[in-house]
Amino acid sequence: MRLAVIVAVAALAIGVPGVAAAHAGGPQEVCRITDPAVTEASGLAALPGGGYLVENDSNLEPRKTRLFYLGADCSLTRSVGYPTTARDPEDLAVDRKGTVWIADIGDNSPLTGGSGKRRDTIALWTLAPGAKNLRIHRLRYPDGAPRDAEALLIDGAGRPVIVTKDPSGEVFRLDTPLPTDNADGAPLTAVGRFEATHSGTSNPFGFLGDGFVTGAAVSPDGTRAVVRTYADAYEFDVPDGDVAKAITTGRPRVTPLPDEPQGEAVAYTPDGRDFLTVSDQPGPVAILRYTVDRPVPSPPPPSPSAAPPLATAGPDRTGKVALLTGAFVVVAIGLVAAVARRARRRNGAGAG
After folding, report:
1. What are phi and psi of 137, to 5 degrees?
2. N or C: which end of the chain has fewer CB within 10 A?
3. Which residues touch 272 (CB under 8 Å, ≥6 apart)?
C-alpha cells in the first residue's frame, strides 16, 4: 500500500525509532517469490494440499492485478484475473469449504485517487472450488462513510469480518445474506474495535507502524484468529466461531514480526501451528514462517472415578503385623507382671 511510504517518511521525520528486539530465533524463510508478475503481495493463504495463494495490490494496469497460485517453492503455477476492474485488493482468505475470498477493501490506490477515503462501496470477490471465474459481492459501511481497510477474516458461520486499517481499527461484519453481482452495497454491522498496543517492535514505520492493521487470518480449524500490524501479530482464541467477538473482547498472544520491509499479509500454516507472512514489495520477496509461542495446557485433574479405591478388600499385611506386634507386647507385659508378683510372695513368706 503506497500510503505506507508516506507514513514511513512522516515517522522518520519526527524521529521515532523502533526499539524491540526480534522474536527468539527469528523467522524462517520458506521460499522466495521471483516471478515478475507477482508484485506487491498484500494477501496470503496456504493451500491444504501444498503451495500458496497470493493476490497483489492495485496496479496502474488493471490486468496485472490478479490472484496467483504458487507451488511449494513459490513458483507461479497459474493465475486468475478479475472479470471487471478490482479497485484495491488488500487481503485474502480460504474458508473451510475451500472458497477463496479476496478483500477489495482498500481506499488508497491510484484507481481510487491515491489519497484515500473515496469509495462509496467496497467489494469481496469469491472463487468457489472448481469455479473458473471470480464473483463480486458489494458491501458498504453502515454510516455510508468510506474507510481504508486491509484485513479480512471469515468466521465459523461463514460471515466476512473486516477490520479497518486505522489504529483502534473498527470491526465490521456482514450479518445479512451475501449478495452477488449487486450494484448497491449490502450494509455491514459495526461490532466493536480491535485494539493494537504500541509494542515498540522494530518496523520501518516506527511507533505508527505498530498500530496500523494490515492483515488477518483464521486458523484452518477455526479455533484461533490472528490480526497483524506492520510490527506484530495478535492471536486470539475463538472457542465458539465468533471471530468478531474474539478480536474485540479477547486477550491476545502477541508475536513480534520485526523489521519486515512492509509486512501486510499473514496466514496460518496448513496445520494451524505457525504464521506465514509476506511483504507488500516489488519482487523478489520471501514468504516467512514464524513459530508461535502458546501456553501448554495444564493436564486435567483426575476424576473421582480415577482415584485409587480404598484398601478394603484383600489381605492387609501391614495391619496384621501391627496387630500381632501389639498382642505380643501385651502378653510380654503380663508375663513380667506375673513373675514380679511371685517374687514378692516368696520374699514375704521368708520374712514371717
Report:
1. -135, 110
2. C
3. 219, 220, 221, 223, 224
- Indicate the DSSP class of residue 25: T
Annotated domain spans of the chain: 3-289
Nearest to 178 by CA among 124, 120, 122: 124
Q: In DSSP terms, which residues pair with 55 in a beta bridge?
A: 43, 67
Question: What are the strands of the beta sheet with 52-56, ordered from one edge?
Answer: 41-46, 52-56, 66-70, 76-81
Pair 38, 85: CB distance under 8 Å: no
The pTM of the full predicted model, rounded to 2 decimals, is: 0.78
Query: CA 281, 108, 245, 229 torsion: positive or negative?
Result: positive
Distance CA 1, CA 214 (A): 9
- All three cell numbers of 172, joined, read 465490521
CA distance 39 to 214: 17
Helix or strand (DSSP H, E) at 94: strand 91-94
The DSSP annotation for 26-55 comes to --EEEEEE--TT--SEEEEEE-TTS-EEEE
Taking the chain (352 residues) in runs of 10, the rounded mean pLDDT of each run is 42 33 68 93 93 87 90 97 94 96 86 64 97 97 94 98 92 98 97 93 92 96 97 97 98 96 96 96 92 78 56 42 40 41 41 34
**251: its cell numbers:** 486477550
The CB-side HSE value for 287 (13 A sphere, CA atoms) comes to 28
Neighbour tally for 263: CB within 10 Å: 27
Q: Which fold has domain 3-289?
A: Neuraminidase (2.120.10)
Q: Determine the Cα–Cα distance for residues 232 and 215; give it in Å rounded to an integer.
A: 11
Q: How many CB atoms lie within 10 A of CB 8?
A: 18
Find out whether 63 and 81 touch, Cβ atoms under 8 Å. yes
